[in-house]
Amino acid sequence: MAGSAFPHGDTSVVGAALNHTLTLTNDGQLREIRLHLSAASATSEDLTIILHTTAGAIYQYKLLTHDMDTVRDLVMTYNPPVLLYVGDQIISTWTNTDGRNWGYQLIVEGR
Q1: Of 8, 35, 65, 83, which is the most buried if we count CB atoms within 10 A?
Q2: pLDDT in tens, 51-108
Q3: Starting from the edge strand earliest in sequence, which strands make up the sheet with 89-94, in order?
Q4: How far apart are CA 39 and CA 24, in angstroms?
Q5: What confidence score (pLDDT) does residue 1 get?
Q6: Phi, psi (rounded to 5 degrees) for 57
Q7: Left (φ > 0), alpha (ψ -120 to 50) or beta: where does 99 sit?
């Protein structure tokens, strides 16, 4: 497979909710999701990551739902990777009531 892995949504945010949408401009493969918090979350709230595909609603699904209570670092690796196509969207949300600082990355390999 041609291409190389690179981060998308490589973001550091101070105390705000995570609301991130990545819209694919090239076909690719999702290899990994990474989230680091400044301190472990103390509230039971889900991190939710959804794939909205251009193929239609029947092909849309959750890539991850994870309760962030007591979590400081989260790494989710997909093997095999998730196939992505131009126009697909990865939508990530987390309320972050505790106001933790966070860094977030989606590792996507281009095709």
Answers
A1: 35
A2: 999 998 888 999 999 999 999 999 999 999 999 999 999 999 999 999 999 999 999 9
A3: 18-23, 89-94, 46-52, 61-67
A4: 31
A5: 36
A6: -60, -30
A7: left
Quick one: pLDDT at residue 5? 47
Would you state the structure tokens that stand for residue 13, as one six-digit string?
A: 């945010």
Delineate the domains of the chain, giving CATH numbers in brackets.
5-95 (2.60.120)
Q: Which of 57, 58, 50, 13 is nearest to 35 (CA)?
A: 13
Six-digit token string for 73: 């670092």
Specify the residue for token string 């890539």.
63
- Which amino acid, residue 91? I
What does the pLDDT read at residue 13?
A: 73
